[in-house]
Structures are given as structure tokens and as C-alpha cells.
Backbone:
């Protein structure tokens, strides 16, 4: 089985946060594993020889090679959460994390979960996570998720057998409905569990700030024109919510499920308009390079000249940026190359994910000269082509940022460099193979959930804290 069985080969996914969209760790790639597909989240980071990533879920093949066994990953490497694959539509572009009961058709159960109120959906997922955790044997916790060499195959096979056994013993993660009701009632009496360390205070402070920002956001939402109807908001909005008790009483047991669906998604410059009340992954469509549109795809790079190099350990580290380059035709029929920011490794983020870092007019040659004659190794810089354009500058929000003139230069070895005319700032890029980077990268624990600033927020701090969180919060990343 490969990621192609999920119709996600070569694809990246954008991870949506309920009420918000996250900055930290929201780029997820479906990567072929050992008779499985591994969904791994790229972690915002500085440029280094090894890309850091954290697993989100694994989908294992059954004896016939069909995607059938699903596990969600928690913070601790040993923690797994068995779940069910409720459905997977051909060419799915959204994956929903939901709950389903064991009675009636799976599709019917999946359609009932969205009818619950948002708070009930969140509490139910929390309770199911608390009830269905299983752990890998200690000798397999450090086993790789991808085959790096033939020497990894025996331990990968042993890990797969253990996971199949755990999934069967846990009944696919299905939990008695009365047990879930008890957990929900106990949670209601005790209230929310404090977060460890001072991280809880940070999250509470962010939520308070988010509440203030919410008023402004709601007032300006009409200006943003997020095309809500095109992204099927009605699926998760009902004038009469289904009581949680009624949902639980439709079966004797309930469990976590992953549902793939094909939806009509609206986009703004290649960035999907994400629903603010779902637990979901959205597919980020990657245009294939073709003659006349050679630069489409996923690129990575850093600010500054000479370009950052992963092995330059003695030099100051540079923030790693992931950009999606895609082509659009403007109202005048002119071809544009748009660089949409997907991930950023800086501590203080000025422009939210989904922002257009630069736009190049492919029919307009640049009249500017590239500012540098040599690179970091004193080699002459060969500029093959240059295009006029605009780069992002101080402004407000995702859709209406300010811009300053600049030029996009195509350098030797296929590198790109966008230079802002007034400041001389330069963003250098090279094409990425995200699958290969993750296979050679470093697995790290999942990051804490963060408030949204993908829409309308001007700045945000990326906080890489030493403490982490349990899986009961992973799904809301």
C-alpha cells in the first residue's frame, strides 16, 4: 500500500484547528511506510541537516493490501489510539476526525456526528481519546516508521504485527457507550484539567487575547470574503443540534473514526478556505511543473545572502520557510507566479500562513540586476532569467497585505531568489521533496496546540516549549 491508495500521493495536507487555523505544525504529508501510509507533520524549525517531524496517524494495510487498520498518534512515542476508517471517497480532499457508533450503516453514523454541537463534539473526542489508548511494547517504541535500509525491515515487520494485535485486542478502539457517558459526566464535575507547567497560563492568556480578537475578526469577516458556502459550512451547522446522549444511544459502543470526503473547496491564491469549526485535514493542491510553468510545486528556503546551507553548523542558523509556488492568470490574461507561505520557522511571525510572500509577473522581464556577484563559496552567480513582481510588506491580514516592488531571479542549479528592491532583502528557494526529507529526518514529539492567526492576525510568537501535551489535544492541532 502507498500514499496513492489514499489519493494523496505527492500531496501535502493543511491541518485545521477548530475555531482557528494553526501556525505551528500545520503541514502534514502522506508518506508511504511499511505496508502503510504515515501522515507526518513538518515542525517549524531552523535550517538543519535533518527535517524534524511528528506522526499524526498511520493507516495499515490488511492481508489483501487494502487500507483498513487506523491508529492516531499521541505525544508519547509509545501511545497509539486505535480508530476506524469510516469511509474514503475517491480523490478525497478533506479528512475529518469524528466519532461513530457500532450500530447502523457507517455512513449514517458519520453523518450524525456533525449534527452535534461543537462543544459536544470536542468533549466526545476528548473522552474517547482518554478511553482507547494502547501502548507499543517497550522494545518497539524506538522502531522507525519508514524503511531507511533493509536492516530496518525486521523491526518494521515486528512493529506492524504488534500494532495489528493491539488493534484487534482493543476492538478497533470501540468503547462502551455507558463508559463514555461516565467519563463525560466525571469531566463535567471536575472541570478542565490544568495544563502542565506554565504552558497552561500561556494558553489561557492566548485564549483571552483570542476572545478580544474574535470581536474584530467577526466584524471584519465580510471584508475577508472567505467563501463559506463554497466550503460546505452547512455540513457542520444545524439549526437544531443533536443531543449528545441521543448520539451515544444509537449504539452500544462508540469510537474514533477518520472520514475522507471530496468537497468543493474554495481557495485564495492556492490556500484553501478552511472551516473554523471542524477537526479536519485539508488537501493542499500542488500544481505539476510543465513547459511554461516550470516553477510550480513545493519549495523551501531562507532569508539572506548567501543562501542558508543545512551543514553550516558554525554559522548562525536561519529560519526554514516552506512556500507553495503556483500559477494563476489575472483579469488581464497575464500569467502570475504566486508564492504562498505554508510554514515558517521564525520565532516571531509577522505574516500568517496562506500569505502571498511574493508575486512575479511571468510576462514582464525584470529591469533590475541581481545584487550579488558571488555566493557563499566565492563562486560566480549565474542569473538565467529575471521577472518583475511584488513582495509582501507591512499590511493587514491574509488577503490584503501590503506589497513592495521586487524581482524574482532564476539562478544556476534551479534555485530561485526574490529580492525586494527598496530593502535588498532576499528570499532564496530550492525545490523540495517532502517525502524524502521526512524519511531522512528526525522524529520529535508533537507540539502543543496554538491559537489561530491564519486569518486577519498580524503577528504571533512561535514558542518551542520543553513540555508537550497528551493526545487528547492532538486532534485540535
Residues:
Amino acid at each position: 500500500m502507498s500514499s496513492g491508495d489514499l489519493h494523496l500521493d505527492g500531496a501535502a495536507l493543511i491541518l485545521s484547528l477548530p475555531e482557528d487555523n494553526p501556525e505551528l505544525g500545520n503541514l502534514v504529508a502522506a508518506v508511504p511506510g511499511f505496508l502503510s501510509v504515515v501522515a507526518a507533520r513538518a515542525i517549524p524549525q531552523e535550517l538543519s541537516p535533518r527535517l524534524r517531524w511528528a506522526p499524526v496517524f498511520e493507516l495499515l494495510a490488511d492481508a489483501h493490501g487494502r487500507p483498513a487498520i487506523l491508529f492516531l498518534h499521541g505525544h508519547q512515542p509509545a501511545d497509539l489510539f486505535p480508530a476506524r476508517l469510516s469511509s474514503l471517497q475517491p480523490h478525497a480532499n478533506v479528512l475529518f476526525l469524528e466519532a461513530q457508533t457500532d450500530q447502523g450503516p457507517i455512513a449514517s453514523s458519520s453523518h450524525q456526528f456533525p449534527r452535534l454541537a461543537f462543544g459536544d463534539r470536542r468533549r466526545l473526542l476528548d473522552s474517547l481519546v482518554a478511553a482507547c489508548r494502547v501502548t507499543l511494547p517497550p522494545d518497539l517504541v524506538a522502531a522507525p516508521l519508514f524503511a531507511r535500509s533493509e536492516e530496518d525491515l525486521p523491526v518494521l515487520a515486528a512493529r506492524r504485527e504488534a500494532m495489528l494485535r493491539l488493534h484487534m485486542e482493543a476492538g478497533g478502539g470501540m468503547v462502551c457507550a455507558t463508559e463514555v457517558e461516565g467519563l463525560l459526566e466525571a469531566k463535567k464535575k471536575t472541570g478542565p484539567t490544568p495544563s502542565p507547567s506554565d504552558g497552561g497560563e500561556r494558553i489561557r492568556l492566548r485564549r483571552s487575547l483570542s476572545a478580544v480578537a474574535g470581536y474584530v475578526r467577526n466584524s471584519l469577516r465580510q471584508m475577508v470574503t472567505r467563501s463559506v458556502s463554497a466550503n460546505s459550512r452547512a455540513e457542520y451547522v444545524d439549526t437544531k443540534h443533536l443531543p449528545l446522549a441521543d448520539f451515544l444511544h444509537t449504539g452500544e459502543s462508540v469510537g474514533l473514526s477518520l472520514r475522507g470526503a471530496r468537497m468543493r473547496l474554495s481557495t485564495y491564491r492556492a490556500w484553501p478556505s478552511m472551516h473554523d469549526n471542524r477537526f479536519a485535514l485539508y488537501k493542499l493542491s500542488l500544481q505539476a511543473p510543465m513547459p511554461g510553468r516550470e516553477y510550480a510545486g513545493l519549495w523551501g528556503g531562507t532569508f539572506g545572502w548567501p543562501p542558508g546551507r543545512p551543514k553550516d553548523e558554525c554559522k548562525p542558523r536561519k529560519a526554514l520557510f516552506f512556500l507553495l509556488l503556483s500559477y494563476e492568470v489575472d483579469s488581464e490574461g497575464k500569467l502570475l507566479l504566486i508564492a504562498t507561505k505554508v510554514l515558517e520557522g521564525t520565532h516571531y511571525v509577522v505574516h500568517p500562513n496562506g500569505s502571498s510572500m511574493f508575486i512575479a509577473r511571468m510576462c514582464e522581464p525584470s529591469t533590475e540586476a541581481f545584487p550579488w556577484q558571488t555566493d557563499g563559496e566565492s563562486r560566480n552567480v549565474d542569473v538565467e532569467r529575471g521577472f518583475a513582481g511584488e513582495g509582501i510588506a507591512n499590511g493587514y491580514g491574509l488577503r490584503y497585505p501590503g506589497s513592495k516592488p521586487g524581482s524574482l531571479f532564476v539562478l544556476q542549479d534551479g534555485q530561485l531568489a526574490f529580492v525586494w528592491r527598496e530593502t535588498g532583502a532576499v528570499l532564496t528557494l530550492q525545490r523540495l521533496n517532502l517525502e524524502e526529507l521526512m524519511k531522512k529526518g528526525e522524529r520529535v514529539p508533537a507540539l502543543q496546540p496554538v491559537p489561530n492567526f491564519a486569518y486577519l492576525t498580524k503577528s504571533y510568537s512561535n514558542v518551542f516549549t520543553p513540555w508537550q501535551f497528551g493526545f487528547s489535544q492532538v486532534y485540535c492541532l
